[in-house]
Amino acid sequence: LQRDAKGQYLFDLLCHHLNLLEKDYFGIRFVDPDKQRHWLEFTKSVVKQMRAQPPFTMCFRVKFYPTDPAALKEEITRYLVFLQIKRDLYHGRLLCKTSDAALLAAYILQAEIGDYDPGKHPEGYSSKFQFFPKHSEKLERKIAEIHKSELSGQTPATSELNFLRKAQTLETYGVDPHPCKDVSGNAAFLAFTPFGFVVLQGNKRVHFIKWNEVTKMKFEGKTFYLYVSQKEEKKIVLTYFAPTPEACKHLWKCGIENQAFYKLEKSSQVRTVSSSNLFFKGSRFRYSGRVAKEVMESSAKIKREPPEIHRAGLVPSRSCPSITHGPRLSSVPRTRRRAVHISIMEGLESLRDSAHSTPVRSASHGDAFAGPGRSGRAESSDRVAVIADESYSPADSVLPTPVAEHSLELMLLSRQANGAPCSIEEEKESEAGTPAAEAEGELRALCPGAGGLGPAQAQQVNKFVLSVLRLLLVTVGLLFVLLLLLIVLTESDLDTAFFRDIRQTPEFEQFHYQYFCPLRRWFACKLRAVVNLLIDT
């Protein structure tokens, strides 16, 4: 990769390797040495965006979840989205009832091993798959029962398509949570979905705001503001606090990109957005891709032979080990659970339909951009929707995109297989163990007392210095403009009505004769002295 190569070059190279045409739904994510996630910006140099040393470790994943994944034109695109949602299910980002969980897992089973065969699939064969953070024997029996009796004859492509149709009806479809806190200090997860902005708190969805109701997003330091204009001219401002300023900026940029992608009609409507009302302060960002409507119109024009899909080796799923990828991890005992390693299936098994829950989305979302067709969800946005009996706490979502080294991963797998949950420090180390991060850790270990700023502190100092310089530059510019205006008023012969009215005011006459004329004579005297000195020398 050349030093001046843009992110778009790398992304196009990767999509060409995957034979992928419907590529606008995907992106490349990486983790910096401070364990902060970032999306690779396609208009900037790859090397300049990476704060680590090569080789760089990045992750290809879904960035914008399709409004209707079953309507994607090509099977290769549906397969890649299927892999992403399967990963979301495993990490607890996609939450569902027990019956839905069993059906989704059965679709995965059918797609990976085909029809049930008593000779090949002994009793308990479904337990060799890891579909969720934690399994129960009852759920495994239900998965095997559906796989045996209901899905026989389905091809991998059909099973994946049915999986996508079912997944899109779930409340947490397309959720990539950002951990935050509200004004009361309570933990919450903020997310941007194809249909709007979502806030998940405890076991409830406390806010759902459609994209056409979001009027503005901005951030200051760790504080994120969302301005909402609802029906009857009701305006509210939601305020949340991110763990770090970098996390808050990442949240803001994700919101700007998602709103532009799902809300706008054309990419020509995209505008540069500032995080502050003052043009010399804050961050400026512009979404550089196509919008959802343009992507769907472009997909409809694709005419080629369907590319061959190598399901066993195209994108191996480390996070979802199957029969071909390795044995299922043992569940963590209830008495030894930690906050990081959640047992989400207990909440799935005891989940009941609530009278206050949001209506399930229909299988078709062709009217998602029209608005009136989704009146049921709009009416429910004012209510609190219960999504689970247990708190929504996706362990992997609060951590960086996994870039684990092989040895670290084996160590963590062996610990989990023995029933010992990993600490958050260990998981972060395994999922963000980039060479730069390891080198930085070794350097800090060798020089514990060494002074100096870390990358995050240095970046904050640089931002502060740039902000001060911008303010100073604007101030000097304004003073220069005022000086030019003053010279025009006092020295020029322009006799326009505007200048004449100003010159005739008593205040200007007093300023002109008492201050400006003496100052002009002083400057003229000094200038003559300097000229005479130069002539003499």
UniProtKB/TrEMBL annotation:
The chain crosses the membrane at residues 468-490. Residues 1-266 form the FERM domain. One of its GO terms (biological process) is actomyosin structure organization. SMART domains: B41 (SM00295), FA (SM01195), FERM_C (SM01196). May be involved in regulation of cell migration. May regulate cell-matrix interactions via its interaction with ITGB5 and modifying ITGB5 cytoplasmic tail interactions such as with FERMT2 and TLN1. May regulate ROCK1 kinase activity possibly involved in regulation of actin stress fiber formation. GO terms for cellular component: adherens junction; cytoskeleton. CDD domains: FERM_B-lobe (cd14473), FERM_C_FRMD3_FRMD5 (cd13192), FERM_F1_FRMD3 (cd17102). Keywords: Cell junction, Membrane, Phosphoprotein, Transmembrane, Transmembrane helix. This is FERM domain-containing protein 5. It is found in: Cell junction, Adherens junction. PROSITE patterns: FERM_1, FERM_3. Residues 352-380 are annotated as: Disordered. Pfam families: FA, FERM_C, FERM_M, FERM_N.
